[in-house]
Fold this sequence. Notes:
This protein is an alpha+beta fold. It is built from 3 helices and 8 strands, in the order E-H-E-E-E-H-E-H-E-E-E. The protein has one domain: 2,3-Dihydroxybiphenyl 1,2-Dioxygenase, domain 1 (Roll), CATH 3.10.180.
Amino acid sequence: MEQRISLVTLGVTDVARARAFYEQLGWRGQEVEETVFFQAGGLAVVLWGRDKLAADAGIDDQGADGFGGVTLAQNVRSRAEVDEVITAAVAAGAEVTKPARETFYGGYAGYFTDPDGHVWEIAWNPGFPLAEDGTITVPDFGATG
């Protein structure tokens, strides 16, 4: 697994309120399908409904006592690499919370937790091409605002 992070997704209870907060800090994002994407240097910070994020990761959200409402994501270059990284993570002590499978956005992804319970998504997303150094650029979705 390469030493990098592609996306930091924050599970929020109110996407509009969260977006307003970050925009008050000077961030500018794009909203697509109730998900807000902020380009943050070589990675992206994403705001998504906490309930949707927990369900997507295969996590039972216990509020502050369990799932913390945050996942770390690494985009990879192929479907096969998703499987390779998840296999390596399991070998290192990770627990798979959602096996890799086709996604609603036309990609392929799975989730695991590290030994401390931090949730990682490993994803191949044809809409987010990777540069040679592994960085992503949030595409122009043509969204307003």
